[in-house]
Design brief:
- With 256 residues, the protein is of the alpha/beta class.
- It has two domains: 5-113 and 186-253, Rossmann fold (3-Layer(aba) Sandwich); 119-177, no CATH class.
- Helix content is 37%, strand content 19%.
- Helix 1 crosses helix 10 (241-253) and helix 5 (136-143) packs across helix 6 (150-157).
């Protein structure tokens, strides 16, 4: 597996992992802000962006993808930031290979099983008639029948690309659809823990990290501290990129 990535900056290595339906390009604004302090790698996870498509995508597999990427880059360890699904990949990596993670930042996700939150989106994406799409607005109009929020449609449509033969999905939609139960869950990993310094950042208006999840976070990540970002939803890095950048920078640089 050779993941597609964007590289910038100098300093301690920092890997950023996106969420489901996302890609490395979602992090351009924050990457520009952090490039002055870190050697920054924003990655496309398997079946997303411009990375290879595979038939499976468990968290153990995706964590191994990151470990392999680090080896390809000559990195024995790195700071890791992950949002949503990318946060679960980052947590899995830290639990399975703790020596590879210097400091860990998890954005608005807990190491727990979630109910289905993407069924409507997946149904809409799978039902999109690509043959009828002559321009992006045509796809947006189709999706609006099931997805009323324009910002959500705009985010999803970043995965639609134009080719000489017409429009197609850049993401591996069939495999993501099939893997969604596993993506919504989190592996037990035989009770492993990560003792390294960890920050969880939750949106104050998001329900992804609830108080009832805190004991499980502390069980797996005993050194974890929680930061709540007021007036932010699950998409906190899009809504408040400056504040999220500040939190990441302050935590990773610490007392160095």
């Amino acid at each position: 597996m050779r993941l597609h990535y964007r590289k910038s900056g100098r300093g301690d290595p920092l890997l950023i992992l996106h969420g489901v339906f996302g890609s490395s390009s979602n992090w351009n604004a924050i990457a520009r802000r952090l490039a002055g302090q870190f050697q920054l790698f924003t990655l496309d996870l398997r079946n997303h962006g411009r990375s290879p498509h595979t038939d499976t995508m468990t968290y153990a597999e995706m964590a191994q993808d990151i470990l392999d990427f680090m080896a390809q880059q000559g990195l024995e360890s790195a700071n890791i930031v992950g949002h949503s699904m990318g946060g679960k990949v980052a947590m899995t990596l830290a639990l399975l290979h703790p020596a590879s993670v210097r400091r860990l930042v998890v954005l608005d996700i807990a190491p727990v099983r979630y109910p289905d939150r993407f069924g409507v989106l997946l149904t809409a994406l799978n039902q999109l008639d690509l043959a009828a799409v002559k321009k992006r607005a045509d796809a947006d109009k189709q999706l609006a029948r099931q997805i009323p929020a324009p910002e959500v449609r705009a985010f999803l449509l970043q995965n639609l690309e134009k080719t000489p033969g017409g429009y197609r999905w850049r993401i591996n939609l069939p495999v993501i659809t099939r893997a969604m139960p596993a993506i919504s869950d989190f592996p037990e990993l035989a009770g492993r823990t990560f003792e390294g310094e960890t920050r969880f950042v939750r949106g104050g208006d998001s329900d992804y990290i609830q108080d009832r999840h805190l004991p499980e976070i502390q069980r797996r990540f005993p050194a974890a501290r929680m930061v709540t970002l007021d007036h932010a939803s699950h998409w906190l890095h899009h809504e408040q990129p400056g504040r999220v950048t500040e939190i990441i920078r302050e935590f990773l640089i610490g007392d160095k």
